[in-house]
Automatic annotation (TrEMBL):
Membrane topology annotation: Single-pass membrane protein
InterPro entries linked to this entry: TonB-dependent_transducer, TonB/TolA_C, TonB_C
Cellular compartment(s): Cell inner membrane
UniProt record similarity statement: Belongs to the TonB family.
Keyword ATP-binding: no
A Pfam family: TonB_C
Domain TonB C-terminal: 49-145, 316-408
Identification of the protein by name: TonB family protein
GO biological process terms held by the UniProt record: protein transport; transmembrane transport
CC per GO annotation: plasma membrane protein complex
């Protein structure tokens, strides 16, 4: 009797194994015959349909991986999957990925996706291979390029205003903002600022750099005209510096900032006259590299005058920033071991309150160097806001900063 029971159990196990094998091989249809059609289609009479709004569903279920968010990693992950005959999603795969964390999140989201309306061929449900992009994008301030037409319009408008028609700044709030801009990275106070002013005192034999002549293919006549422009500007700068006096230099500079800014505009108008249209267009693109007009995400408008004043000034204290970066950056060990070198360019926004946001990689070298660059730039202290001297308002400005990684 015991032998019979053991045998029965053995046959029962064998029956279960055989039944499982059959299920794995195919599906029994209503007539009792085995349906073994595992064909996957990419074209059908009726393609599969998601039941609802797929964009909304993904938006409600996707979670931006923290490591990718912290390092400003964005992009599009292409996912492929099969919509089965019953509409369920299976065989989810990343066809084209970006970063491990984003790839894993894409797989997680699509594997939990609800059933679709299946594809049909001749009214019968079929398996269908489907591809879908999943875009990971960090919402950032909108930044738009300053166009050449806008630049020319500005020069035609502002370049006709004589320097003597520009008034000194008298608003104490604006003056204090200008003072804060100069003091932010100026070590040594007024003595250091005096040395900076001494460096821009006129040198009457100032000449156009040879590299400038080669870059824009200036002929001798053009070079002669441009030499005269440079000399003219140095003389005008000297007049403004003398007008500042010797006391409260930073405050006096702040009061005279509209004149210094307008002098830059007049210089640009004169430079245009020394070049042909093709040369000047190339010069403009070089001048505007890495500079954009920005709109903050909360809906604040940028300076609407397209006046170029706040774009024609290099990042306040850029020398100090570069020194600060050199002190703070830490060359990743993994990059050193692999002899990875290069220049990472990081973009960021100075908001109207001076805060730094939207730090992201513009030009990548390696994930380890990119991550270190973003980490360092996110530690920048807030800036004094950039001011538009025409509308007397703070503006958001987009900048880029290069971070060089070089092994000795």
């Amino acid at each position: 009797m015991e032998i019979i029971k053991i045998a029965s159990k053995a046959w029962y196990k064998l029956y279960v194994i055989l039944f499982c094998c059959i299920l794995n091989a195919g599906v029994l249809n209503a007539s009792g015959r085995l349906d073994v059609d595992t064909t996957v289609y990419v074209v059908a009479d009726e393609g599969p349909e998601f039941k609802g709004d797929i964009i909304q569903w993904i938006g409600e279920n996707v979670q931006y991986p923290q490591v990718a968010w912290d390092n400003g990693i964005m992009g599009k992950v292409i996912v492929a999957f099969i919509v089965e005959k019953d509409g369920k999603v299976s065989n989810v795969q990343v066809v084209r990925g970006i970063h491990e964390s984003l790839n894993e999140e894409a797989l997680r989201v699509f594997n939990k996706m609800p059933a679709w309306k299946p594809a049909k061929i001749k009214e019968e449900n079929v398996r269908y291979r489907f591809t879908c992009p999943l875009t990971f994008n960090i919402e950032r301030a909108e930044a738009e390029s300053y166009s050449y037409d806008e630049f020319i319009t500005m020069l035609d408008r502002e370049g006709k205003i004589p320097l003597e028609n520009i008034q000194e700044e008298t608003d104490p709030v604006i003056i204090q903002m200008y003072v804060a801009q100069k003091q932010q990275f100026l070590k040594g106070g007024e003595s250091a600022f005096k040395q900076a002013l001494d460096r821009i005192s006129p040198s009457y034999n100032v000449r156009v750099p040879a590299s400038f002549v080669r870059e824009y293919k200036l002929d001798k006549e053009q070079q002669k005209k441009l030499d005269a422009v440079y000399k003219w500007k140095r003389l005008e700068q000297e007049k403004l510096i003398k007008r500042m006096g010797k006391k409260d230099l930073i405050k006096r500079y702040a009061e005279l900032s509209p004149l210094f800014a307008h002098l830059n505009i007049l210089e640009e108008a004169k430079i245009r006259e020394c070049m042909n249209p093709e040369q000047h267009l190339l010069y403009f693109h070089d001048l505007m590299e890495g500079k954009m007009i920005s709109h903050e995400p909360d809906g604040h408008e940028s300076c609407s005058c397209k006046c170029f004043y706040h774009l024609n000034v290099s990042l306040h204290g850029i020398g100090g920033i570069q020194n600060w970066i050199a002190r703070e950056v830490k060359y990743p060990i993994i990059a050193q071991e692999r002899n990875i070198q290069g220049k990472v360019i990081v973009g960021f926004l100075i908001n109207t309150d001076g805060s730094i946001s939207d730090v992201h990689v513009v030009q990548s070298v390696d994930p380890s160097l990119d991550a270190e660059s973003v980490r360092v730039m996110r530690r920048l202290q807030p800036f004094a806001p950039v001011i538009c001297p025409i509308h007397k308002r703070k503006v958001a400005v987009y900048y880029t900063a290069p971070i060089n990684f070089q092994l000795q």
